[in-house]
Amino acid sequence: MNRSHYQVHADVRRVFARHWVDLDRIQFGVYRDMLRVSGELHSTRDGGETASAALLEVLSGEMMRIREIRCVRCDFANWQRDEEGAWKSVKGGTFVIEDAVAKRDLATKAPGAAGG
Predict the structure, then answer these.
(1) Which distant-in-sequence residues (6+ apart) come within 8 Å of 73 by Cβ?
(2) Of 12, 61, 63, 76, which one is least surrounded by beta carbons within 10 A?
């Protein structure tokens, strides 16, 4: 027997709550067998900081374990998938640089060094 969409929504909400996701900043809906999540993903743990890429992978994996869900689609304002499919944090429409070498290279560039 199929469960009601209220029961499926309760399961989804339970997964988010288990991982301290700020439910005030996201919206989600289940349409047939697809879960669609949008908004900004933030954690309520540690003062509401932005979630991690590892958390996104865990969330999508746990959502897929819900019997009625066959597909999870995430459209977050602060997270996007790169060309390889890995989650990257974004701010203001650009990727956040997390690579130490890239940070060092940016820090060593002198302001106005570009010729013109």
Answers:
(1) 34, 35, 36, 37
(2) 61
